[in-house]
Amino acid sequence: MLFDDTYKTISAPVEAIFRDRGSKFLAYAYPINSDADIKPIVAKLKAEHPKANHHCWAIRLGIDRSVFRVNDDGEPSGTAGRPILNTLLSKDITNTLVVVVRYFGGTLLGVPGLINAYKTATEMALAEAKIIEKTINDIYTITFDYPQMNDVMRIIKEEQLQILEQRSELNCDIQFSVRKTQVEGVMSKLNKLTGAKIKYDYSG
To answer: Where is the Impact N-terminal domain (predicted)?
Structure first.
């Protein structure tokens, strides 16, 4: 199978509200890049909704879509975080956090009712979102002598590489981003430049 170097995520935060028998489910979806983004977002929503009974969430992370976490925040196990995550899975989106804030309306919804409510609230929020496709890129830095600038820039232009950072002195550094499927071709061209050093930084 050809390596797939794209993934889908949402372009901006969105929200929606679902009501069932007096209970209110406020769903918030956010594009995120790492685990570290979760805590501040959940804390902010808890501060905005101090009287809510539950702040349940799920994330899917990683361009290989392999990382996921769920939190039922006091709801019966499997009735909140899991339905939220399943909705992310069925939409095939990653790098996304969905938090559903629940205000209890006095009537118990039962397990099927809860699963349906968290799933529906999540679906409604994601229906508001613009789903975008991003490419998986490797980030490299090339270091070279100033006279080689034209050669390096020509390759960057030919391959339509995105420059992230550039430092031009006697020794020049250019940090650039290259689609995973392009890496081999780009490297073989850059490696032909005498004295240029290429360092792999990270994937993103």
So the answer is: 21-126
Name the one residue in this structure whose structure tokens are 């002195």. 169
Say if residues 40 and 118 touch (Cβ distance below 8 Å): no
pLDDT, tens only, 100-128:
999 999 999 999 999 999 999 999 999 99
- Strand ranges, E, within the chain: 6-10, 14-20, 23-31, 54-61, 67-71, 96-103, 131-135, 137-145, 162-168, 171-179, 197-203
- Both 143 and 199 in one domain: the answer is yes
What is residue 153's DSSP assignment? H
* Helices 149-158 & 183-190 angle (0-180, nearest 10): 160
Q: Spell 166-180 as b/e; 16+ CB within 10 A means b.
A: eeeeeebebbbbbbb
Chain CA centroid to CA 157, Å: 28
- Whole-model pTM: value is 0.79
Amino acid at 157: K
Report the CATH number that the domain containing residue 12 is assigned in CATH.
Answer: 3.30.230.30
Name every residue whose Cβ is closer than 8 Å to that of residue 88 and which is 6 or more positions away in sequence.
58, 60, 68, 94, 96, 98, 122, 126
DSSP reduced 3-state for 106: coil
